[in-house]
Amino acid sequence: MQGDLSKRLYSAEQVRALDSQIINSFSISGITLMERAARFAFDSLLERWPSVKKLIVFCGGGNNGGDGYLIAALAAQKQLTVKLIAVSSPSTLNADALTAFTIAGSAGLTAEPFSEDCINSVRQDDVVDDVVIVDAMLGTGINKPVEGDYALAIKLINEHPSPTLAVDIPSGLSSDTGRPLTTAIEADLTCTFIGKKLGQMTGLGRSFIGELKFNTLGAPSEAYETVSSAAYALSMSDLISEINTRPKHAHKGFYGHTLLIGGNTGYAGAIALAAQACARMGAGLTSVATHPSHANTVLTHCPEVMTKAVKHGNQLSELLSAASVIVIGPGLGRDAWSEQMLYHAILADKPMILDADALNILSIKSDWLTKRTAPTLMTPHPGEAARLLGSDTALVESDRLKSVRLLSERYDASVVLKGSGTLIQKHRGATALCPYGNPGMASGGMGDVLSGILGGLWAQSEWSQSYATDLGVCLHAKAADIAMRKSGERGMLASDLIPIARQLLNRKETN
Description:
- This protein is of the alpha/beta class.
- Among the domains are: 2-230, 3-Layer(aba) Sandwich (Rossmann fold), CATH 3.40.50; 248-373, 3-Layer(aba) Sandwich (UDP-N-acetylmuramoyl-L-alanine:D-glutamate ligase), CATH 3.40.1190.20.
- The chain is 40% helix and 15% strand.
- It is built from 19 helices and 19 strands.
- It has helices at residues 2-5, 12-25, 30-48, 63-77, 95-106, 116-120, 148-159, 236-241, 268-280, 295-301, 317-322, 336-347, 357-362, 382-389, 393-398, 400-411, 446-458, 465-487, 497-505; strands spanning 8-10, 54-59, 81-86, 112-113, 131-136, 164-167, 189-193, 196-197, 211-215, 231-233, 257-261, 285-290, 306-309, 325-328, 352-354, 376-378, 414-417, 423-425, 431-433.
- The protein is elongated, with a radius of gyration of 26 Å.
């Protein structure tokens, strides 16, 4: 059950509801949960840093601080040296946190008040692995800018050479959005409890949590039945396990026909990448409609693809009629030719994947989509999402969940909001998160390959479009992780991902 629960991603409010349900309906006391959290965090700390000799534990004034006091007590019982620092006066503690403070005192520990000098009193020549800092200052409930001693403590901890364990969530990080509230702890390890928080998995949050470990603290599975989650994390292994072997009598007619439209003057590479990715995902037929100046280039790049030079949107009719699914956007551009291609493609009312400049055109021509009845998938990066919403990139990134849901509602479509912790908003449905991907993907052509992968999978009627979207996003990101492991982040090319994604799709080993 814990494996299933680890895929659910919650907001701070939802986690509070879970806490209340566990305590009030299942008679597990708050101090018992706190003791279990402290034990899990301390054991995880020892596993990660087995040579640790000294802990510096920063405690706040709430239950997160209570976790810290209990961790300090466990460390003292283990005969580690403990420096216990109260960022908020212990006189403000109540209930379970006060009990935890008393337990730390019984273990022979005295909490010293926070000051700028308290952390600097630790010898700067300590071996980094011998000292671990524990951040137990601010929990999931914070929703305003971090100020005063907490802001100073975060600054000092981030500047210190020792590694940091964050308890539940790095202090200062929004558990809902992954946005630092002016400043946040840059943890090496985060131990989170009861439910994973969405903000740990998307946006800037992934840059602050380090390694993430999760424990339900023994909460009964029934406690989770009445509290919904904000989103759920996808699993590559689960997705791949649903793929069946093709029947022996299969032929290309079984697996659909994808039409890709794009490649305006100067952008042949984008449509060529998308077409190759599409064909490698197993689409029965792959066709490309491109600007006349690039037809030969695309054909040379991938001779298995049927390529047609198109001067005007009226020439798309036969191709659109034959297609099972349309992908439009890679290298499309934003001129009159581009608008003709998009307008005629939309009129065909076939299942459609919209990317890149198709999205930029629609940010101005949004009424074009209103008469569509066929499934639509939009795949914006944050900048494109901002244009579609009439907003700005920073605002989109400040609350990625809100942004992807608003896009889906406004355009009556499924939406893949790309970026760190890509979010997939199902049309009038749930929100999924892709836990894969890395900074090596910050290079040109990555989105073109993704749109091709999605187009190739959508064409195959053996699975639903929702499943194909989840699978395609995860194949793309997981392939990038494998490419990083093989050759590093820098210099990763979009084309590097295509053969790896094919291997993953076919359950072949990738090293």
